[in-house]
Amino acid sequence: MNIRNRTPLHRLPVVRVLFAQAVVGLTAAVFCGVVFGIVAGYSGLLGGLIALSANVYFAFKAFRYFGARSARAVVQSLWAGEMGKQILAAALFALVFVGVKPLEPIALFTGYLLVLGTGASALLLLKNNPKH
């Protein structure tokens, strides 16, 4: 029996990580824009948005189920979320490279990697108790 998580996404602890990623992405975009110019600024913003939107998709898919009785559904949901995240990120990169001219690829990947790095340090952000 699959136990569906009825907690809305905005009430889950992962929202703090997503918020931190949004702040880092926006800060990187502003920094790139001020230091390197407007093209680098929006390129950095697009990179951050690619990573953030893929992570929001993953969070939505990954936290659909909970509990020991839903172990199979949890694993399937995590797998589907991760595969969807990778496909979404690749598709968004393709759209940006095809549709955005001019583009600064270094700023794009810098924004992307900074947002990913924020997600990778999620354990530091959540500390010991994810409820607070």
TrEMBL record:
UniProt keywords, alphabetically: Cell membrane, Hydrolase, Membrane, Transmembrane, Transmembrane helix
Chief subcellular location: membrane
TM regions (residue ranges): 12-39, 45-63, 83-100, 106-126
Membrane topology value: Multi-pass membrane protein
EC number: 3.6.3.14
Top-level taxon in the UniProt lineage: Bacteria
Signal peptide: none
Name of the protein in its database record: F0F1 ATP synthase subunit I
